[in-house]
Specification:
Helices cover about 15% and strands about 5% of the residues. The chain is mainly α and about 110 residues long. The chain has one domain. The chain is globular and about 45 Å long.
Length: about 110
Amino acid sequence: MAVCDYCNQEMTTAMGCVTAPIVIEGESYQPVPFGSERGLKGIRRRCHDCGILPGRVHHHSCDVEECPACGRQSISCGCLWAGEEHLADDWEDEMEERLQLVGPDE
């Protein structure tokens, strides 16, 4: 069972996630509905990753979710949603730890 942190629903059976605007760097954006992403047309089934229905909003961190700010894949684009700014610091700390574990000769 995977419960979405944003809508508190079971991801694979929920119709969709919350439709509230997304704030990125102080600007408000409407989430991109499933099937409206660049390159996706004629979707008739649930999302293969987060399970939402066509026309509904993906659960955040879905690998199909398109960032409404830059248009790239949301999980890897680097745009931080309001309330997620700590993730940038966490990522930098994690990368530093990984680099320390790999010696200079590796």
